[in-house]
Write a structure and sequence with these properties.
The structure holds two protein chains of two kinds. By secondary structure, chain A is of the alpha+beta class. Chain A is built from five helices and twelve strands. In chain A, the strands form two sheets. In chain A, strands 7-1-2-9-12-11-10-8 form an eight-stranded mixed β-sheet. The longest helix of chain A is centred in the middle third of the chain and has 14 residues. Among the domains of chain B are: about 110 residues, Ku70, Chain: A, Domain 2 (Beta Barrel); about 60 residues, no CATH class. Chain B contains five helices and eleven strands. By secondary structure, chain B is an alpha+beta fold. The chains are: A alpha+beta, B alpha+beta. Chains A and B meet through β1, β2, β3, β4 and β5 of A and β1, β2, β3, β4 and β5 of B.
Chain lengths: ~250, ~260
């Protein structure tokens, strides 16, 4: 990674100001294709066309419209969108702290690394205090004219900044109508399931999992480049057994 | 309820549980359309061939990939042929301690709901919910949705199975190139003071404490604009500078939070 920050600002930990530089922490490695015209292999361009005039519109003649009723738009200028961003100052004030492990995974959105800026001593102190307490500092962060809820915590030797989803964006399990069985799982079934969980237990090692699909797509591209004919194979469905105890027993191989 | 995003079966040893996948998040954002400034007519995105200057229909579009400067074209059928077999299953490969999985790996959250209400399905589903909850473990598996294979973490949440798609290890950047402020360790007194500030300001995690103010303000801006009111854009606040004396700033902070 060429360490190029995407945002510079200050984390305010009470009166202790900690300048930070943000870096993206994740990047998608999914093989991405560009759209091409199948007939001649030429790149497909996206053009902005006015639906009324049927003519191309340059980007600086495009405005944002919010549809209030069918075909009726409220137009917002770029500056007006900024008014919604809240305080666009380059400060992330840590107003309160929570147990970092208590934040349910469902709330996690994106992760950034917050690296040390001009006050390395204050940065090391905040890192150590967050690491030792196991807590995450909660704050707000404005990025590209949009305010995010963030949790800042110690990760490795640096700080990780997670943007979080808001509670009303998270679906409650009650909204899904999950049907419950007439009877609870039997003791024997639970014991066998526990054994199965134990027998397949591993320490979490993310590097043990490779994106085999990505590798297969890249391989396909290479074969195609050599002019190979691609075999379009069919897929099969798994069997679905109904005897739970017997299936568990067989899984345990006893 | 929204339609299921995927359906298939969760395969746990030789136990197969038919399940459907639903997103665990909903989109509450205000979405804007691009309009032509002059006539306020919506802008349409149209696809044109860069060589022939003719519009290109969806079915005439193929996938191009730049392989070392040479363009390779593949179509949907060819892409489908390399999807792993058994694409209708989530195969559980291992169980891990949920606490060991760093949130940096989490991508998108979903729920897995039993498909149909056959007795066998509901019992197998309930058994897995219970087994994961009791052991505080999560199951790691893989499945294919649309054209991509995902690594997924399945855990018990509120009596249901929650699934989170995971980033692969090489999609998480190393922290090494990130500036970490050097090797100089803070003093014990400083760390004790900082931890004390954190403890004073600590609260239980309660997501309802945090509202999306951006969404609320955007709604107000839209409403004001609709009534043809003038929108004031506030000046951003100034960025504070680091304290000259770290210990002194820490002590003043501690005094302040304790006097609240």
């Amino acid at each position: 990674m060429a360490a190029r920050s995407i945002w510079n600002g200050t984390v305010a930990f009470g009166l202790v100001n900690v300048p930070v530089k943000l870096y993206t922490a994740t990047e998608s490695m999914t093989v991405s294709f560009s759209g091409v015209h199948a007939r001649d292999g030429a790149r497909v361009e996206h053009r902005r066309i006015c639906s009324k005039e049927d003519k191309e519109v340059p980007y600086d003649k495009v405005v944002k419209g919010y549809e209030v009723s069918e075909g009726k738009f409220v137009v917002l200028e770029k500056d007006e969108v900024k008014a919604a961003a809240g305080d666009r100052g380059k400060v992330i004030a840590l107003d309160e702290f929570v147990d970092a492990a208590a934040i349910d995974p469902v709330f996690h959105d994106r992760t950034y690394y917050a690296g040390a800026g001009d006050a390395p001593e204050a940065y090391r102190l905040l890192h150590e205090a967050l690491r030792r307490s196991g807590r995450a500092g909660m704050g707000r962060f404005t990025f590209h004219d949009r305010e995010y809820l963030v949790a800042l915590r110690a990760y490795d030797d640096v700080l990780a900044l997670h943007t979080l989803r808001f509670h009303d964006e998270v679906v409650d399990v009650g909204d899904l109508d999950v049907p419950t069985p007439d009877q609870k799982p039997a003791r024997k079934e639970l014991d066998m399931a526990a054994k199965l969980v134990e027998s397949l237990h591993q320490d979490f090692d993310p590097s043990a999992y490779e994106d085999t699909y990505r590798a297969a797509v890249l391989d396909l591209i290479k074969r195609k480049a050599k002019g190979e004919e691609i075999d379009l194979a069919e897929q099969e469905e798994p069997e679905h057994g109904d005897d739970l105890a017997a299936a568990l027993q067989a899984s345990l191989g006893s | 309820m929204a339609p299921a995003l995927w359906s298939g079966s969760l395969s746990f040893g030789l136990v197969n549980v038919p399940v459907q996948l639903f997103s665990a998040v909903r989109d509450l954002d205000y979405h804007f359309r691009q309009l032509h400034e002059k006539d306020k007519a919506p802008i349409e995105q149209r696809r044109y061939c860069s060589e022939e200057a003719v519009e290109v229909a969806w079915e005439e579009i193929a996938h191009g990939y730049d392989l070392d400067g040479k363009q390779v074209i593949v179509n949907d059928d060819e892409l489908a042929s390399v999807q792993p077999r058994k694409t209708r299953t989530i195969d559980i490969e291992a169980f891990v301690h949920l606490a060991e999985v760093d949130p940096i790996y989490f991508d998108h959250p979903y729920f897995l709901v039993p498909a149909g209400d056959s007795k066998g399905t509901l019992r197998a589903y309930a058994l897995l919910v219970e087994a994961l909850a009791r052991s505080e473990r999560a199951a790691l598996g893989r499945f294919v949705m649309r054209t991509k294979e995902y690594l997924a973490l399945v855990r018990s949440r509120d009596g249901a199975l929650a699934l989170t798609t995971m980033r692969f290890a090489d999609e998480v950047r190393p922290t090494k190139p990130v500036p970490s402020g050097g090797k100089k360790k803070p003093t014990k007194k400083q760390v004790d003071g900082a931890v004390a500030v954190i403890e004073e300001l600590s609260t239980d995690w309660d997501p309802e404490r945090y509202a999306d103010c951006y969404r609320a303000r955007l709604r107000r801006v839209i409403d004001a604009k609709r009534k043809r009111k003038k929108i004031a854009v506030p000046e951003p606040s100034r960025e504070p500078s680091p304290a000259a004396d770290l210990m002194e700033a820490l002590e003043r902070t501690l005094d302040e939070v304790r006097s609240r």
